[in-house]
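User: I'm designing a mutation panel for Receptor-like serine/threonine-protein kinase and want to avoid disrupting the core. Could you give me a predicted structure to guide residue selection? Please restate the sequence first so the numbering is unambiguous.

Assistant: Good idea. Sequence first, for numbering, then the predicted structure tokens:
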Amino acid sequence: MALVLVLLLFVLVSSPPRAASARDTISPGETLGGSDELVSSNGKYKLGFFQTGSESPGNASSYWYLGIWINRVPTMTPVWVANGDDPIADLTAAVLTISPDGNLVVLNPVAGSIIWSTQANITTNNTMATLSDGGNLMLQKSLDPSDVLWQSFNHPTSSLLPGAKLGRDKVTGLNRRLVSRKNSVDQAPGAYSLELDPSGAAQFILVELNSGVTYWSSGVWNGRFFNSIPDMGAYSEFVNSSREVCLITPMDDANVVTRLSLEVSGQIKSFIWYEQLQDWVTSAVQPKSQCDVYALCGPHTVCNDNVIPSCNCMKGFSIKSLKDWELEDRTGGCIRNNPLDCSCNKTTGSTDGFYSIPCFRLPQNAQNTTGVLSEGECAQVCLSDCSCTAYSFGDYGCYVWHDELLNVKDQQYSDLTSTKVEILKVRLAAKELIRWENHRREMLVWVVTCATVALFGLVLLLMIWRNQKKQYFCTFNNVQGGNGIVAFRYTDLKHATKCFSIKLGSGGFGSVYKGILADSTAIAVKMLDGFRQGEKQFRAEVSSIGIIQHVNLVKLIGFCCEGDKRLLVYEYLPYHSLDAHLFQRSVTFLNWKTRYQVALGVARGLAYLHESCREYIIHCDIKPQNILLDASFTPKIADFGMAKFMQRDFSRALTTMRVANGILKGDVQGLVDPKLRGDVNLEEVERVCKIACWCIQDKDSDRPAMGEVVQILEGLREVDVPPIPKILQAVAESPH
């Protein structure tokens, strides 16, 4: 209490008037309160007091938190929270300042108490706090800012920013981990954590904190990547030294906004902000199935990845807290509508019964009962125990469950050929079973009535259909075509693209728009211009292209051909085209390693088109604009096979002219991008240059096949010094 009184006096006497201009530092005697904010010097992050909102009316938080959020994003996105478990009810009674002992504190002058403190063990009171350009709040010595006494990067909450570490400091024992929020508005610690495996294995795990159950692991680090997520290796570094064992996330470009977040759902997600869309785009998620998160839906629920919401109560149960569910916290689960009959009278027995739930992954913590030979005996074993809530009987014998049923997963939309279907018998009160039986009868009457009406309507439609003079094959909604290609209706694509309002780009074949399907799948829709084909031929070409599947080729999802409209639907790639990363400043910078992998991937894709398809496909229009990048920067070639649709004459001479023009306009002396600042593998640079010269040889027979190019780039084959092509000789001899 004495410290608080001293601190109050210190603040009231020493606090000078606050400047109106933005600042990134708090010095002794200064305060931050109300709407005051610290802004990093690059303007990317802010520190201040904030409230969280909710899309559901009446569910917005009335409490305030001290935290860091991303300044360049219009929607409030906290990335660090100081007082998550001790929110502030009255903002006028809270200020951030530096205490007499040098710690950074949130003080309540009215109550005379400290709400939050850095609690650093320091020996000086001459300190200051700075919000760095990377979003790190640092407590430093005023005379030596390089001496950091405390930093928010060492105490992450639910998000990890680029440049931060996740793991354990072996010297101090500090364990950096992520903990999910309680719900969409409450910043208190939630049910899940992402942390270094405490067993000592070089891997990260996701844990349900209440039970301690590990429901996902990254796989052990093998020196290059984590076994379960190999794509992550190129964009992170794992350090296991005598001082620390941790994951280090690389610093991103100043103009790119990314974050890693442990969501309320228990999934770890990587986000990137797209200005064009004004929204966060998910670039990676683990575990991929939301229902693989342990106890996500709470007791007496069923989880299904294919429906929204994914959590639903079992029959005979109701949501325990509707407000929590609206705030995305469903861990409370469901409760019984009617209590069980637990009289266990040996004469009359329990009046309870069972409700069958097929096609489910059985809940965990089952108890095996021996000596039970029939399902009837298994049911009786459960009925004779008041704590028994369900049973299952099969080739494996009789299993019963007591108390809460957790982690039940619906598999009816999954590949049931690879997973044996189980039957779960859930115990319900007799009153509940009677109600469901009556409901079933009512539903049966409705089904019969609706089926009769539907049959009549179908006959009527068939009669109308037979009298139609013109038919279109693309008028069905999401009809699965040959080779897994989906036929879309034009109206559905128009709705998915918001009337083609989000334009991603345009080229010689038409414009491309972003769309979102009903199941939240992002797509890229290409509206073809200048087509000359009839519907039958167009469908045939779509079918032939649809069977072309390769990791370095953009996947064709579907098409539409209604009237004179021809559209192709592709997978959506969040990092867009290669030219944006090479020639624009507002996107992620690609280092040499990534560029070389892009070149290798493009070569593999072309080799597949040339040598592995039934028909020899020449792209004829390879350029950076037609090379797209997915979330892990894997290159994918777009617009392959487009010449078939447009019936244009793409000759080899045309391709050669494009290559020639590109070289004539380039700087042959500046072979390496100056932005790389010399950070390249010279052997790989030489290899790429030799291949480039071989590929533009004057004679076709002297040029290597793409399969040979792949082997050379992989280092499996040597490449000789090529003859100088005439075109390069002309460039060399031309006056400068």
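For picking mutation sites, this is relevant: Confidence is low (pLDDT under 50) at residues 1-20, 413-418, 468-482, 645-669. The domain at 1-155 is CATH 2.90.10.10 (Agglutinin, subunit A).
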